[in-house]
Amino acid sequence: MRVLSRWFALAAWLAAAAWGFAGLPLPEAHAAPGGEQVLRVRADDDLITMDPAYVGKPSDHMLAMNIYSGLVRLKAGTLEAEPDLATQWELSPDGRTYTFHLRRGAKWHKGYGEVTAKDVRFSLERIKDPKTKSRFRGVLQSLEKIEVVDDYTIRLVIKDPYPAFLVSVLAFRPGWIVSEKAVKEKGAKFGQDPIGSGPFMFEKWVRGSEIVLARNPDAWEKVRLAKVVHKVIRKDAVAKLAIERGDLDVATLLEGASIQEVKKNQKLNILATPGYATHFMQFNLRRKPFDDVRVRRAFLHATDKEAIAKHVFFGNATARHNLLNPHVFGYEKLERNFYDPGKAKKLLAEAGHAGGLDVNVNVMPAAQWPQVAAVLQEQWKKVGIRAKMNVPERAIYDSRTRAGQFDIAFIRITRSNADQYLYEYFFSKSQPYPNSSGYARADGLLLKGRHTVDDAQRKGFIQAAARKIFVEDVVGFAIVNVNYVVAMQPYVKDNVPTFQDSFPWRQVWVQK
User: Which of 50, 273, 361, 444 is least buried, going by the fewest C-beta atoms within 10 A?
Assistant: First the structure.
């Protein structure tokens, strides 16, 4: 681990040097012409899409959540739904019919007219349509009927009671409402030139450099920032240097070494929150030998999670086994560290792989997964597992995962409700994606955990499903749960993150 630590230190120095010596222009100052407030923030990756049907990564989510509105949204800093496009709603006694009353006078950006119930129907039907190929289609299959009562009233009927419907579906990406006129007009270009009704409008994208959002002049709530400039800075060491030099106002940091250093800076405000993000690995059960639970257990016993939490994340993470993060309803602390190399070798031999095993791993090219992958490669090598770690660009990573082109896939998941983890990733009808593992042995428990109204019973079903998936069947397992650390200049006020490692800029302001 000493060698690994020296490698991280050298990489950080080289990245910082590249920023300082390359003669790169500094980001614009945080005052726009006329003295209006501009916030300069880090985006850890470039834009892929801001279309709610396809948003898949946190950096895109951070943009989209400020551009769009949903019927409801998550209240900042909580897992509770609050009004957004809908000012109020009623739920029928049988728990199946929601009637939403829309905000009158809500307008689409850039002159696309008023938001109406027809746009809501279009948005939800678009996600459900197989032709859209949305990653969230399965999430909306419980939605049985969408009825436009009038321009400002929409009625949604779901097949069965679904207590998490507001938080898991309507306050998340599939619930963001799009303009029917804009989607049809822009076609495939909509994801890079979006029209929403949220507090900020899409203004500019300089590929590989920055994405600029401008205040929506028709926003129904007070927005104090004139612009938010998202600077694309992939390297944590570069982002740390930028925030310390004053070239950024807000920077989310992902890597343990950078976090450890920035916490020492007395001039910055550091927001450290117990993490919602879980680093998780899943097996492709459609491929041999991963259809054999003994092989899957061997990987579990070959993995030293505590060492990864300590040496890769510098203690800024906690070893986990349960995919669910500790904040969500139904979370249960499962055994965290099964590290036992001798047992791993024994299981491989029993499964017919005494001579070892060759595997292809699809590694997420972000969130410190490449560093974790390097450590796992060495840990697994000790028991005879020869892992080829493939770290492609994000678009290729997504394509391979969706197509099931992997033996093992590393993913990072951040969600607000157990249903968003378990049902989406392990329900049989969620195949081929996001259930890329091909698992189908917990459907009964998953459905009960989704539709049971009584909280105590629902919690029991959720926990039983998690134990079956992660302990009994070992479809995959968590590595660590990572803390969320944000460095901010002291003049940035009211910056409260949501569960999704993102910020609702509507409430933020700069104290000049």
Answer: 444
